[in-house]
Amino acid sequence: MNIGVLIKQVPSSESPVPLHDSETWIQEDGVNWEMNDSDSYALEEALLIKEKQGGGDVVVITLGPEARSLKTIREALAKGADRAIHLVDDVPGLSDPYLIASAIAHACKEESLDLVLSGLQSGDLASGQVGILVGEILGMTTSSLVMETDFSDNSIRVKRELEGGWYQWVTLPLPAAINVQSGLNHPRYASLKGIMSAKRKEIKTIPVADALNNTEALQSMSTLSVPIAEKRTEMIEGDTDQIVSKLIDVMKTKAKVL
Amino acid sequence: MDSHSVPLVFYAIALIAIIIFVFNMKKFLVIRKGKEAPLDVKWWELLTNALTFGVAQKKVYRKRFSYASIMHTFIAWGFLELLFATTVDFFQARGWLTAYLPELDTPWFAFVNDFGGVALGIGLIMALIRRHGDKPEALPQDAWSGRGILLGDTGILVLLLLLVCGGFFAESARLAMENPESAMWSWAGFALAKILPESLWIAAEPYLWWFHAITALIFIAWLPNTKIFHAIAVIANVAVTNRAKRNQIPAMHVSQLMEDPDLDPDTISLGVSSSSELTWKQLLNSISCTECARCTMVCPAYATDKPLSPMKIIGDIRNDIVNGTKNGGLVGGTITETELWSCTTCGACMEECPVLINHVPMITDFRRFLVLSEGKPPTQASQHLENIMNTGNPWGMSNRTKWATDADIELPLMATKKEADVLYWVGCAGAFDSRNQQVARSMVKIFEAASVDYAVLGDEEMCTGDSARRLGEEYLFETMALQNIETLNKYKFKKIVTACPHCLHTLKNEYGDFDGNYEVVHHTQFIQDLIANNKINMNPNESKQLTYHDPCYLGRYNGEYDAPREVLQSLLGSSENMIEMKNHKSESFCCGAGGGNMWHEVEDGSRINLKRFDEAVETGAQGVVTSCSFCTIMMDDAMKVRGKEEDFSVQDLAELVADNLS
Q1: What's the gap between Cα B76 and its chain centre?
Q2: Is the domain A3-212 a CATH 3.30.70.3400 member?
Q3: Contact A196 B263 (CB under 8 A)
Q4: Structurally, how many domains does chain B consist of?
Q5: Does A16 sit within 8 Å of B375, measured CB to CB?
Q6: Structural domain of residue B468, as residue ranges?
Q7: pLDDT digits (tens, 9 = 90+) for A135-184
Q8: Are residues B181 and B214 both part of a single domain?
Q9: A188, B268: Cβ pair inside 8 Å?
């Protein structure tokens, strides 16, 4: 019973992210990298399933340049993952979800994973595709937006979030790839004991080029730009009833708070 | 009774009693189960501690516990006097040193001895009233069995009372029988003797003498198993206590630990989870506890119905080491995680403990186990700890000088200046918390008004690691400390000024363990100095009455109570405009944010900051002044919850000074 967890390093939400001259990626120097928030929930869910099952390995898989990836890998190992696979990408900015998923799927093939967990989406590019693509490439059953899991020997029952407060329970036969919603558990804190043990755990490295084996990208980044911050004020006019109904309408359609 | 009349059989029984006493004193040996710790007190300190805090019970006498203080004075001094009298009597009976010693019927000795007996009797009755009449809730509630202590709180009082009464009966009978000339000097026994006919006393005399003798010997034999054991243990405990270092948390030197190639993470023990992992000194602390409950009565967590009683923690440790570990273990079992996380490390317990027990460092040791070994900090706090690890501050924000640039302040940076008289340690709160940014701006205004040559570290400054350390995250604390020390050592400055007592405490008292030694002053001390040297002048505002809230880490931890008060008084024009709260100076009540509690909330009970805020409002003052980033946030928050923004103010002293500069 082995569980793969896809983890990514993303700039922390408070970190400055200056654009690179190429305008297709950011300047990575000085950026504060951290484990993608929703991936930390996937890792925690994997650890919880493993603890409940009482066996097997949790294998974290990440793709990225050496320095920043290692920090995230060590963090995951310190939290309790057993092994790691590092797809070393020395040209940062690989952004096509299909290419990334292909490389990861290649690395996963030999691992006989029963389950691949990933976070809902990344904090930087937010495509939300990689985890599901990996499952599809490996011929696994897949489910996204999972709020709760219930693991049994040959299958996993998951609670999926639907729109408008609705949800559904789905049972997936194994092997399965699941992408989890943030907040489904409380990610644990890395203990010092964990940090010490992490140093002894295996990190397998695979160059991305080897894993890709000439796979073609399906999409590429054309330009990246900083969003322009602007404030817009819309005055709602009319008598009280009109104002109220317009305001409710705005709250429903534009602000989407109702 | 003459020397020859003490029957030999008494000495035989007494010998047995003493043998049992010595055997029962083996309880002391449990401290050998503890880990090594240096004996860091000089021999004369050992002696003076034993005499002042031990024999003379210096810390027992506290105004806020007046009933208990009087009660204990009667019991302890009555007891000591009788111990002296009994020893003299023994010497007389054996015919030793008789030329130098008074006899039982020597008038002054007879008078004093009865006084001792009466005092002990009154003290014991006061204690029984306290246990069974108006009993403080914090005291142990199981009166007869105690917590692993023979006879409990009540049983030992009854036994002692029997001893006192028996003593007087025996004395009365002896007076009736021997009818010495100075009988009336034994005033209590003499009066008692007059109640019954002489013949009855004479007939009862041997029985009364034996009753008293046997109760005394039973008491001696069992003393180490009863609460009175504290009278012996405390002398040892206070003697070996280094009072200057009481609130210091020993460094773990984690980075050195991690470099050890032989280290096995699976077997290494980090922090303390069982009583045998505590040091012998901490175990001595635990067996010295008298369960007077003063620590618990002043504990802010206890006062707001959180599941923490410092006394219970100490009692749990003692029971664990003396009577064996219960199922579930000590930490996480007998002592729950919530109890440990409820502690604000305010130090009120240690301040009040009459026998110098150090509760907070033990609680921190337990927290270290939860965090370093188990990876279980409070859920809400873990995000902030990760923020410190990732961004160098608990807020998880970046740009440490935005508070200044937003207000068009050009901050002198150490990175460019390299040298300055004063290094202003802004702190994470000053840099990122909007309320405390105002304090930082006020400090700049004061520096400029006084033409102080100052500079800040800007983005080079990191969290001092205070919250991390208090939460048991020693690894993170050490990471921050080492990084800050490296930065500080790059520059030249005379002193560090900090606006936050938590930064002050770590920089001043804790970085030394990592070779970071600096002169660090708090901004209230710095401002007081500026005023004294006429570097700044203020327009006193005499129309306002204010109260001052002592931050725990400035007051109790660093002994500074006067500087902020002097500055405040000069601001208010007169001392009458400064109203003290009931709990002030060393008796100050925590705001609730210390010990890392700024970053998580224990759900049980009510909120500590509200209780403290209400105390401030009760003074009738129009505002509360404080001098700590956390206290300001907590009081400000409480003011909003109480809806008092209109008619009450919460300010840091620096803001008040900056606003009134002339």
Answers
A1: 22
A2: no
A3: yes
A4: 4
A5: no
A6: 387-531
A7: 999 999 999 999 999 998 889 999 999 988 899 999 999 999 999 999 99
A8: yes
A9: no
Give the number of other Cβ atoms within 10 Å of residue A43's Cβ.
28
- Asked if the structure places residue B40 within a domain, the reply is no
Q: Do A196 and B265 touch (CB under 8 A)?
A: yes
**Exposed/middle/buried for A201, CB within 10 Å: 0-12, 13-18, 19+?**
middle
| CATH number for B458 | 3.40.50.1860
A200–B contact, CB cutoff 8 A:
yes
Q: Is the peptide bond before A175 cis (omega within 30 degrees of 0)?
A: yes
Q: Å from B130 to nearest chain A CA?
A: 46
CB-nearest partner of B371 from A15, A16, A191: A191
For an interface test with A, the pick among B369, B398, B478 (most A C-beta atoms closer than 10 Å) comes out as B398
Mutate to test the interface with A, among B267, B386, B401, B476 (most CBs of A within 10 A): B386
Q: How close A78 gets to chain B, by Cα (Å)?
A: 10
Angle at B375 between CA B374 and CA B379, to 5 degrees: 125
Q: Answer yes or no: do B439 and B497 share one domain.
A: yes
- Evaluate whether residue B14 is within a structural domain: no
The alpha-carbon gap from B431 to the nearest alpha carbon of chain A, in Å, equals 14
Show the tokens assigned to B80.
Answer: 């000591």
B282 shares a domain with B355: yes
- Beta bridge partners of residue A26, listed in sequence order: A19
Q: Which residue of B has its CA nearest to A186?
A: B379
The amino acid at B171: E
SS (H, E, C) chain A: CCEEEECCEEECCCCCCCECCCCCCECCCCCCEEECHHHHHHHHHHHHHHHHHCCCCEEEEEEECHHHHHHHHHHHHHHCCCEEEEEECCCCCCCCHHHHHHHHHHHHHCCCCCEEEEECCCCCCCCCCHHHHHHHHCCCEEEEEEEEEEECCCEEEEEEECHHHCEEEEEEECCEEEEECCCCCCCCCCCHHHHHHHCCCCEEEEEHHHHHCCCCCCCCCCCCCCCCCCCCCCCCCCCHHHHHHHHHHHHHHCCCCC
Q: Which of A16, A188, A189 sits opposite B398 (nearest CB)?
A: A16
- Measure the CA–CA gap between A78 and A197, rounded to whole angstroms: 7
**Is B397 in Cβ contact with A12 (below 8 Å)?**
no
Q: What is the mean pLDDT of residues B364-390?
A: 95
Tell whether the torsion through CA atoms of B615, B620, B623 and B628 is positive or negative.
negative
Residue B381 lies in a domain: no
CATH 3.40.50.620 positions along chain A are 3-212
* Interface with chain A: mutation pick from B252, B372, B402, B479, highest number of A CBs within 10 Å: B372
- Give the separation between CA B168 and CA B193, rounded to whole angstroms: 9
Q: Are residues B370 and B402 in the same domain?
A: no
CB of A197 less than 8 A from some CB of B: yes
Average pLDDT over residues B145-163: 86
What is the pLDDT at residue A92? 66
B361, B409: one domain: no
Tens-digit pLDDT profile for residues B488-546: 999 999 999 999 999 999 999 999 999 999 999 999 999 999 999 999 999 988 888 99
Beta B520-522 vs B492-498: how paired, if at all?
Answer: parallel
Nearest CA in chain A to B267: A193
CB-based contact, A18 to chain B, within 8 Å: no
Report the gap between the CA of B636 and the closest CA in chain A (Å).
26
**Residues in chain A closer than 8 A to B386 (CB atoms):** 189
Tokens of A243: 């104002």
Residue A150 β-bridge partners: A157
- The domain that holds B581 is classified in CATH as 3.40.50
Q: In this predicted complex, what is the ipTM?
A: 0.88
